[in-house]
Amino acid sequence: MLLSHFVPVFILYFKAASGTTVYDTYNDFVEEDYTPQLDYKHPYWCHSPGLTNGEVTCRSPHGGHQQTTLGTRCEMTCDRGYRLIGRRSIQCLPNRRWSGTAFCRKMRCHVLPLIPYGRYTCTQGFMVDSRCEFTCVPGYRIDGEHSRTCMHGGSWSGAQPVCADTDPPKIKCPPSRLKVAEPGKLSATVNWERPVATDTADKSLEVILVGPESGSEFKEGVHVIRYKVYDQARNRAACKFIIRVEVRRCPELPPPLHGYVTCSSDGNNYGATCDYHCDGGFERRGTSSRVCQFNRGWDGDPAQCDAMEFKSDVKTTSAFLDQFYEKRRLLIVSAPNISDSDYQMQNIMIQKADCGLDLRHVTVIELLGSPPRETGRIKESLLNSEVIEGLRQIFRISRYYFSMVLLDKLGMDRERFITPIASDELFSYIDSFMLDEEERERLELHRDFCE
User: Fold this and answer.
1) Which of 76, 269, 379, 415 is least surrounded by Cβ atoms within 10 Å, i.e. has the fewest?
2) Does residue 234 sit in the same domain as residue 326?
3) pLDDT over 90 (residue 291)
């Protein structure tokens, strides 16, 4: 609605005769409009809107693309990477001003934290669309996403990765080795250098041995030695090598006829010593022992066991006894005469025990009667009278009553019997007090030989 008011009109009359001026007034008013008319079609009602780093989209009430007519509404949008500050929509008002203001502020994401043992590089710093690539120091690998992008909303894509130690340590074992057993042994001492482990992430590592330590004794055969190591992230590395201990062996040494061999160590290994032994009634001829050599051969020549021969016609007692030294035990039987009842009873028991006496390396000497008809014999072999008298004196054997003297292999007087003794009792004494361990073992093997 238009507003108006009336203005009075003054009419002036000029009178020339009297030289005076007369003013007359009327109460008439003329209507006049002081408020401008709103013109929606005026193209430049408001100033042209602008938005740095953004876009203004306007619509006029009467259509068209004019941006400054009265009533025009403009939508404000910012370019990617910018955030709108102010009014999102403004309108051109009658006072020729816009209903609000806005501007575009550049958007950015927060500063990414550093990751232990790693770093990152970004294409545009922390601005929108900037891509940050993560890398790790040697020995570590990215656990998670390798990159993050600053998104339009001002937040980073994905989650922050970490640098994880995924590379296992490195360890190298010494080479495998062959060791020959030492002479006379079935084992060998083996030494090696302890391996050293390295890791790209950790400076100090503990190397764990699984098996015997260096410098240990290893038996014949194959032995696997293992080492393992863990880094602080529990990554594991391991290595192994083989120790082979070889025992060089000679061909098995056969026993001689009427004899046997006893060997040290395992019998036929390098350095083993084998001794020759003969059965009762036989004596060794040749070498007493042989040694297995490194070339897998035996030194010397084999021995043999021949039937024992002794000389009954020697003139002295010492020469007679020397034939039995360390070879045979002697059982000296003395009686006043051949018809002595004790002698006859003992003689029967000795004849039945002849095989058992041989197994125990015992030779029986008989001294019978008195001079000048005194005789001494070993079975059918007669002894010299001087030897008979020497035996009686050395071992104090009376010719006036029955007695027996048991001598060991060294000629020592071990036991005396003044009455006949059964073979079981005699053998029990010999087995308990006069046989060494080796002889006992041999006796067990041949105990049934006499039955």
Assistant:
1) 379
2) no
3) yes
